[in-house]
Design a protein that fits this description.
This protein is α/β, with parallel strands linked by helices and 204 residues long. Helix content is 37%, strand content 23%. The protein has a single domain, classed as Vaccinia Virus protein VP39 (Rossmann fold), CATH 3.40.50.150. Helix 5 links the parallel strand 4 and strand 5.
Length: 204
């Protein structure tokens, strides 16, 4: 998967504009869910929009992705915005090197539908979420779009994009609830390609 994302890193922000209203609303909503002064981990961050939004409230943000070209673009965007509380590192979302409970808020946006076994990633993200912390999982709901995928997905498919799951809000919630980690709340942002923002709170 990283080879594909390396190849399209230069195109990523341009393509995302086709769903800009949903993406902007999702980033703003996620930023609002980040506790003030939190240590934040953003996994599969792409070019960093959710990391940049979270940095407005967080003490620190670790912006990570498997694709180094994506991270390079995220780094440039953070520098352009004058954000100094973001660091960058290459990470595999299914095998994080961080210790248990390292972060007050963990974000993984628009990636679970790409993974053959999203459960594995969610359990790993939950592991590094601190007691009293929050796991925030915004994910595109292609199942709500049906066969009319919209410009964003059509462009990606034209350059070799493939996703594993076409979630609806209901099937997405069922997946997360099946892991028995915590109560799951899913908020839907409607639009061209809707977004389901799932939130799991880790008890102290």
């Amino acid at each position: 998967m990283s080879t594909f994302w390396d190849r399209v890193a230069w195109l990523y922000d341009l393509v995302e504009r086709s769903n800009r209203a949903v993406n902007a609303a999702a980033a703003a909503r996620v930023a609002g869910l980040v506790p003030k002064g939190a240590r934040v981990l953003d996994c599969a961050a792409g070019t960093g929009e959710f990391s940049l939004a979270a940095a407005e409230r967080a003490e620190t943000v670790l912006c990570t992705d498997l694709s180094l070209p994506m991270l390079d673009r995220a780094r440039k965007k953070a520098k352009k915005r004058g954000l100094t509380n973001i660091s960058f590192a290459q990470r595999d979302i299914t095998a994080l090197p961080d210790r248990d409970g390292s972060f007050d808020a963990v974000i993984a946006a628009n990636v679970l539908h790409l993974l053959p076994q999203p459960e594995r990633a969610v359990r790993e993200l939950w592991r590094v979420t601190a007691p009293g912390g929050r796991l925030i999982l915004p994910t595109y709901l292609q199942g709500r779009v049906g066969t009319a995928y919209g410009t964003m997905i059509k462009i990606y498919q034209g350059v070799g994009f493939h996703y594993e799951h076409a979630f609806t809000s209901e099937t997405y919630q069922m997946l997360l609830e099946s892991l028995n980690l915590a109560p799951v709340l899913v908020e839907v942002i409607p639009g061209r390609v809707p977004e389901g923002i799932a939130v799991l709170e880790k008890s102290i």
